[in-house]
Amino acid sequence: MTFIIVATSIVLLVALIVWIKVEPFIAFLITSILAGLLLGIPLTDISGSIQSGIGNLMGALVIVIVLGAMLGKIVADSGAAQRIAQFLMNGFGEKYVNWAIALTAFIVGIPLFFNVGFVLLVPLVFAVAYQYKIPVMLLGIPMLAALSITHGLLPPHPAPVALVAQFGANIGTTLIYGFIIGVPIIILGGPLLGRLPYLRRMKITPLEVFNVKPKAESELPGLVNSLFTALLPVFLLIVLSLVGLRMNEDSPGYGFITFLGDPNIVMLISLIWATISLGIMRGIRIADIMNRYASAVKEIALILLIIAGAGAFKEVLVDSGVSGEIGASLQKLAINPLLLGWLIAAVIRISVGSATVAALTAAGIIAPLVASGIGDPNLMVLAIGSGSLIFSHVNDGGFWLVKEYFNLSIKQTFLSWTLLETVLSILGLIGVLILDLFI
């Protein structure tokens, strides 16, 4: 019955948004309330679940997304994105620029959360695509593939690190296995998948914040300034993380380094530097810069609400105990433990929407098997991580992030982002099972 209720809720959500044309945020609220009632959450608790879901998700994302939009705006408006696009084209050529985007996203994705890397790289994707008349998805799919794989499989991202600890795996070994499996997956699911004819033919109009007319060569900032400013969040997070790892928690400066290394603080520092280096130092008045920032925030306001709605729906499903019930029913299946871990994570991901919730719930269910010596713990981390990526759809905030930033229809999002996540998940499982044959 639980499966039917979850499926009905998802169908209702799609119907409200696609057929009845209800604003997605309102549709999420309506669907969350009905799902809560049908799944047995007390009336007095449904509102709390909705508020908690919105608060938890937006608390983690709103600062990064807003500051990221402002950073993207000044990087695009100043011509820095155009300068970087020229650099990539000169270095890789038009034929291989999608590989350059995949490599950049892979490097950026290792230290950065998916949402942070996504917000930082989207302006670059549009800058390259529109300056050189390249199909957006030819570049967007490689970027999304690299960011997804690093987020789902590689430490130091939260879910892989938590799974390593829960299974008693070795973080270094897991990271090596993750690279062995992840790099081929990114190649197959990124630059190669992005060449599918129907993806290349997708007509995509960028958000106004990224739709900037090319500037004359003399008006562009320098390459070093452009690269340093656009990638400053990555540099700061890597450096501060390495410094923090070499310090004891009781060291006098540990708290300060931890504070500076928080993604929200890193984004704020980066935006201040961008305001100076790409704005004030190039003769732009501070009032004009702030007006541009305000317009950038207006562009993403609805995106924030839609993601908040997805958080509410996800929290209702989690609070109802759906994930635990699904996992318990699947645990009875007599199959390869790595396949079982992947399957449990996959079904919970499809039902609940959150990759992190799916991974952590599946880990709790499968942990007794790993503790008894059944299945390699390092590979189990990767199997569950792969399963947690599958079939992102309307109950996942990432689905709406991609849809709104790339200005896609729901059908286009399913045919691009959802397809990509499913391909990555299945390739991840295949990679884990192949590697299991040799270790």
TrEMBL record:
One of its GO terms (molecular function) is gluconate transmembrane transporter activity. It is found in: Cell membrane. The keyword Lipid biosynthesis does not apply. It comes from the Bacteria. Its main location: membrane. GO terms for cellular component: plasma membrane. InterPro entries: Glcn_transporter (IPR003474). It comes from Cyclobacterium amurskyense. The lineage of its organism: Bacteria, Pseudomonadati, Bacteroidota, Cytophagia, Cytophagales. It is a multi-pass membrane protein. This is Gluconate transporter. Keywords: Cell membrane, Membrane, Transmembrane, Transmembrane helix, Transport. Belongs to the GntP permease family. The chain crosses the membrane at residues 25-44, 56-76, 96-129, 136-154, 174-193, 223-245, 265-284, 296-313, 333-350, 357-374, 380-402, 414-435. The keyword Metal-binding does not apply.
